[in-house]
Design brief:
Strand content: under 5%
Number of strands: 0
Number of domains: 1
Helix content: over 70%
Radius of gyration: 19 Å
Length: 298
């Protein structure tokens, strides 16, 4: 029986890149909560992805990857942008108005569960007993996380805030986005594809931003608010995407995917220090059940 190859010295840079990506994505929920103290969700998304488009565009230009895309493909990228940027970020940023950053991170970590279910429903992929057990375990973990480990909340049905529900919807939405993205990632350089996808997502967000007449909010951002927005734009929507897909090109996808388990753990630690969100043992146990369930599914 062959054993998976070990990481070598040449893997060091992609390992650093993927670690950077998951750490900043884990901290993104906290940065969003900080910025939400001062401006509306749509303003954060508009500023964040405007910066991301500029950074991705610069990477595409430096790598000489830019090329015009056929109109049929532009509609495909527009759909991905609407799902993966405009709608997805609307759900998460509005969800974070009432959901805790740590709860959000645990909920988002269930995305592979929904990918497996979609694969079963749409692609007719099989769900064995191991995957079914993983889904059941992750579901139990989710109940523990959203109830904050309180049996009283579970009995009364008082589990979800409105924000928790919005974030939960974002998990299957990202699963749909990921499945639809497979074809594009097979045909185009990842940075070029994400440039177009993010560009369309930002354009659609611009429409919402203009309709809500949110321009005046930008002037209300303090230094703390700008730090949150700049972190989201430069690191989370720009550099992290580039580093993540660069690592995927150099390392096995399964090994890169393992690093995603770090994301909610980073969120718990950063939220405790910056937002003073409590670290509850039962919630950590529920989070552990989610990660174990996701691992079984994968």
């Amino acid at each position: 029986m062959s054993r998976p190859s070990r990481f070598t010295q040449s893997d060091l840079i992609p390992l650093i890149e993927v670690t950077f990506a998951v750490v900043v994505w884990g901290a993104s929920f906290i940065a969003t909560k900080v910025a939400l103290r001062e401006v509306s969700p749509i303003t954060i998304v508009w500023l964040r992805f405007g910066m991301g488009v500029i950074i991705l565009g610069g990477a595409v230009w430096l790598r000489k990857q830019f090329r015009l895309i056929a109109l049929t493909e532009l509609s495909y990228f527009a759909l991905l942008g609407a799902l993966g940027v405009t709608f997805h970020q609307w759900l998460q940023s509005n969800g974070l108005l009432t959901a805790q950053a740590t709860t959000t991170a645990w909920i988002v970590s269930t995305t592979p569960i929904f990918m497996a279910l979609l694969g079963w429903l749409v692609l007719k992929e099989k769900l064995g007993w191991q995957k079914l057990g993983g889904i059941a375990l992750a579901t139990v973990g989710m109940i523990v996380v959203v109830s904050k480990g309180s049996w009283t909340n579970i009995q009364s049905g008082n589990l979800w805030t409105v924000g928790d529900v919005l974030v939960m919807i974002s998990a299957p939405n990202w699963a749909v986005f990921s499945i639809l993205s497979r074809r594009g990632l097979q045909q185009y350089p990842a940075t070029l594809m994400m440039f177009y996808v993010m560009g369309f997502g930002w354009l659609f967000t611009t429409g919402l931003f203009a309709v809500q007449n949110s321009w005046g909010e930008i002037a209300h951002l303090t230094s703390a608010g700008w730090q949150g927005v700049l972190f989201l734009g430069i690191f989370c929507s720009g550099l992290a995407y580039i580093f993540w897909y660069d690592a995927l090109q150099k390392l096995e996808a399964a090994r890169v995917g393992v690093f995603l388990y770090v994301e909610p753990i980073v969120a718990v630690i950063v939220a405790a220090f910056i937002l003073n969100e409590p670290v509850l043992p039962l919630v950590l146990l529920g989070g552990g059940a989610i990660l174990l369930g996701v691992w079984l599914v994968n």
